[in-house]
Design a protein that fits this description.
Layout lengths: L1 E8 L3 H12 L15 E8 L2 E8 L5 H8 L4 E8 L3 H10 L4 E7 L2 E6 L8 E7 L21 E11 L2 H12 L3 E4 L2 E6 L2 E7 L7 E9 L2 H10 L9 E3 L2 E6 L1
Parallel strand pairs: 1-3, 4-7, 8-11, 12-14
Antiparallel strand pairs: 1-4, 2-3, 5-6, 6-7, 8-12, 9-10, 10-11, 13-14
Helix pairs in contact: 1-5
Length: 248
C-alpha cells in the first residue's frame, strides 16, 4: 500500500498548472478525458513515479465545485493509494461500513472511491494496476515527462480534522493499517510514505490541507514560490490553496 497520487482542486486550472510547473520543476503530462464524467477538467504531473493532479469544475453542480465553495477556495481533493489486492481492500471497506462512491475495473486498471463523509477529510481512492509499475491516470506517455531535477516524489498527505485521533482511527479501520501517535501527531505509515492527521486551525474546515514532496533543494523551491507570490509568511509553499511540506 503506497501513496501514488495527490489531487488538488482549483478554480483556475491554467494558473494552477503554471504554478506547479514553475515551483516544483515538473512537467505536465496528461489531461484525462475520463474525469469529464464528473464534470471536471484536469492536469496530471509525474513526480518520479508518483503524481500530482489538479482538477477544476467545467460545469455547475460538481462535487469538486461544492468543495471549493465549502472550503472557501482552492485546496486538497483526493488521496490515491495503490494496493496489490483490491478485493481484500473492498472487504475491509465493507466491514467498516464505508460506502463506495464510485468504482471501476477495466483493462488492468481498477479503482474504488470511498465516500468522504464515511471517513472524513478527503476522497480516498484505492487503486490496483497491472502491471504494478503502470499508472493509467498519468496517461500513456507519462514516463517521458518525468523530470526529477527539482522534485523527486510525493511522500505524504496531511488531513486537517476537528478530532485528529477520531479521523485517524477511521482511516486506519478502512485501510487496515495502524494509526500511531508520534511526536504529538497521528500517523498511518504506508509502504512508501505516510498520512498524517492534524488539528484544523485555519478556519477552512476539515480537508486535505497539505502534502509532502521530496525535493533536491528546499531553498531553491522556496525562492521559486516566493517569486510567484506563493510563499506563506511562515515559509510554507502554497499551491492551489494547499501547503506543500518540502523534504530534502
Amino acid at each position: 500500500m503506497r501513496l501514488r497520487q495527490i489531487a488538488l482542486v482549483a478554480t483556475d486550472l491554467a494558473a494552477a498548472r503554471a504554478d506547479i510547473s514553475a515551483v516544483l520543476g515538473v512537467q505536465y503530462a496528461f489531461d484525462d478525458p475520463a474525469v469529464g464524467k464528473y464534470g471536471l477538467r484536469n492536469a496530471v504531473f509525474p513526480i518520479g513515479d508518483t503524481f500530482l493532479e489538479v482538477v477544476s469544475p467545467k460545469e455547475s453542480g460538481t462535487t469538486a465545485g461544492r468543495l471549493l465553495e465549502k472550503r472557501g477556495g482552492d485546496g486538497g481533493y483526493m488521496v490515491i493509494l495503490q494496493v496489490d489486492d483490491l478485493a481484500q481492500s473492498l472487504a475491509r471497506v465493507k466491514n467498516a461500513a464505508a460506502r463506495i462512491a464510485d468504482q471501476s475495473d477495466k483493462d488492468g486498471a481498477a479503482f474504488m472511491h470511498i465516500h468522504p463523509k464515511d471517513i472524513g477529510g478527503a476522497i480516498l481512492s484505492l487503486d490496483r494496476m497491472v502491471p504494478k509499475e503502470r499508472w493509467e491516470w498519468g496517461g500513456p506517455h507519462w514516463q517521458s515527462h518525468v523530470c526529477t531535477d527539482t522534485s523527486v516524489k510525493v511522500a505524504g498527505a496531511e488531513l486537517h480534522a476537528k478530532d485528529p485521533a477520531q479521523m485517524a482511527a477511521r482511516w486506519a479501520q478502512v485501510l487496515g493499517r495502524a494509526a500511531t501517535l508520534d511526536a504529538g501527531v497521528w500517523r498511518i505509515r504506508l509502504d512508501d510514505g505516510e498520512i498524517r492527521f492534524t488539528l484544523e486551525r485555519d478556519g477552512r474546515g476539515e480537508g486535505l490541507g497539505a502534502f509532502d514532496v521530496i525535493v533536491r533543494d528546499v531553498d531553491a523551491v522556496q525562492a521559486s514560490a516566493a517569486a510567484r507570490g506563493l510563499l506563506a509568511p511562515d515559509g510554507a509553499v502554497v499551491l492551489a490553496g494547499t501547503r506543500v511540506r518540502l523534504i530534502q
